[in-house]
């Protein structure tokens, strides 16, 4: 008799019968392994945070699962067809974007997901660090290989903001605002950031790595003092803690839908959705572009996703990148 118990197979049986007991004899028969092997795997699952009760003559009962991004948890109930189906999980990593780029360079397929419970060198835009405490948020990156010219790749950042905003609204009831190009805000405080990195030739994208950092259950003390007035979390905004796996699954589903729409119909429907959720257009803004400061009213985004700012004298300027401030 084989003594290797596939963890996912054991979990599937216990999950189907969650709240009731399954005898060791039945598990042994269903999995084709010894009862000792099952006991060893149960102990291993308990160390990972699964709460499994064992009773003589009754067997094993799955009482609860951990709030962790284990592949078995993410893939169970995931409603995507290809996004996130290939999954690399880490308890701790320097940067999920860096790992994803290395995987992409090695040929990782479209939709590959890299996710970590904690980042030690998480990065935001413009070289900034991203606070990523263990099991408090969702820190993940995706490998994408879109069929677009490199000039249109920045649209993916706006697409991601739209998808994440919609998933959070549906799951929590919290309607975050999108600040161009990549931040999701509540009361002016950042809850989610998006970092897109690209490898391309003149006329073709090799791959894009889409990195997302979402503050879910962070408390005030999880942020360094210099960020406490400008950063927030879903917990701080709603007063509720959230189980993280369903949020991730919802985000992946919205991202797959939006990405497919973008590939099939172009940027127009994404642009409409972005404009509905944004907090920039119609506002007086200051934009830092490569160290040069511009001020005016944000009036629109164009068909490429660039921001249009109207200066006091009436001149309209176009920016494909830059850092926007709504308050100064």
Would you kindly provide a written description of the structure presented here, covering whatever features stand out?
Helix content is about 30%, strand content about 25%. With about 325 residues, the chain is of the alpha+beta class. The strands form 3 sheets. A 7-stranded mixed beta sheet has the order 3-4-5-9-8-7-6, with helices on both faces. The protein has a 5-stranded antiparallel beta sheet with strand order 13-12-11-10-14, with no helix packed on it. A two-stranded antiparallel sheet has the order 1-2. The protein is built from 9 helices and 14 strands.
Helicity range of the residues? 25-40%
Low-confidence stretches: none
Class of secondary structure makeup: alpha+beta
| Count of strand segments | 14
In N-to-C order, the SSE pattern is HHHEEHEHEEHEEEEHHHEEEEE
Strand content range: 25-35%
Radius of gyration over all CA atoms, rounded: 23 Å
> How large is the count of helical segments?
9
Major sheet description: 7 strands, mixed
Distance between the termini: 70 Å
**How would you classify the quaternary structure?**
single chain
With strands numbered from the N-terminus, the spatial order across the biggest sheet is 3-4-5-9-8-7-6
Shape: elongated
Please state the average pLDDT score.
Answer: 93
Task: Describe what is shown at a glance.
This protein has helices at about 5-15, 25-30, 35-45, 70-75, 95-105, 155-170, 235-240, 245-265, 270-275; strands at about 50-55, 60-65, 85-90, 115, 135-145, 175-180, 185, 190-200, 205-215, 285-290, 290-300, 305-310, 315-320, 325. With about 325 residues, the chain is α+β, with helices and mostly antiparallel strands. α6 (about 155-170) crosses α8 and α6 (about 155-170) packs across α9 (about 270-275).
């Amino acid at each position: 008799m084989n003594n290797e118990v596939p963890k996912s197979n054991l979990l599937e049986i216990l999950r189907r019968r969650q709240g009731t007991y399954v005898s060791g004899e039945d598990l042994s028969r269903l999995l084709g392994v010894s009862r000792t092997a099952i006991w060893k795997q149960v102990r291993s699952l308990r160390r990972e945070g699964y709460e499994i009760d064992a009773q003589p003559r009754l067997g094993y009962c799955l009482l609860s699962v951990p709030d962790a991004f284990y592949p078995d948890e993410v893939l169970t109930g995931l409603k995507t067809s290809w996004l996130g189906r290939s999954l690399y999980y880490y308890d701790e990593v320097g940067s999920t974007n860096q790992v994803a780029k290395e995987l992409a360079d090695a040929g990782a397929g479209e939709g590959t997901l890299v996710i970590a419970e904690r980042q030690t060198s998480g990065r935001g835009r413009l070289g900034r660090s991203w606070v990523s405490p263990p099991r408090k948020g969702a820190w993940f990156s995706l490998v994408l290989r879109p069929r677009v010219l490199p000039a249109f790749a920045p649209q993916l950042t706006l697409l991601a903001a739209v998808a994440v905003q919609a998933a959070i609204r549906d799951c929590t009831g919290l309607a975050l605002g999108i600040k161009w190009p990549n931040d999701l805000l509540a009361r002016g405080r950042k809850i989610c950031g998006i970092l897109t990195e690209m490898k391309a030739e003149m006329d073709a994208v090799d791959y894009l790595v889409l990195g997302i950092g979402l503050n879910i259950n962070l408390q005030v003390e999880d942020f360094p003092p210099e960020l406490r007035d400008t950063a927030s979390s879903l917990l701080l905004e709603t007063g509720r803690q959230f189980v993280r796996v369903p949020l991730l699954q919802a985000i992946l589903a919205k991202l797959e839908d939006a990405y497919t729409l973008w590939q099939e119909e172009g940027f127009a429907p994404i642009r409409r959705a972005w404009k509905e959720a944004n907090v920039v257009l119609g506002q007086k803004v200051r934009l830092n572009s490569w160290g040069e400061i511009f001020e005016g009213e944000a009036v629109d985004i164009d068909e490429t996703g660039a921001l249009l700012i109207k200066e006091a004298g009436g001149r309209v300027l176009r920016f494909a990148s830059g850092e926007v401030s709504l308050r100064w």
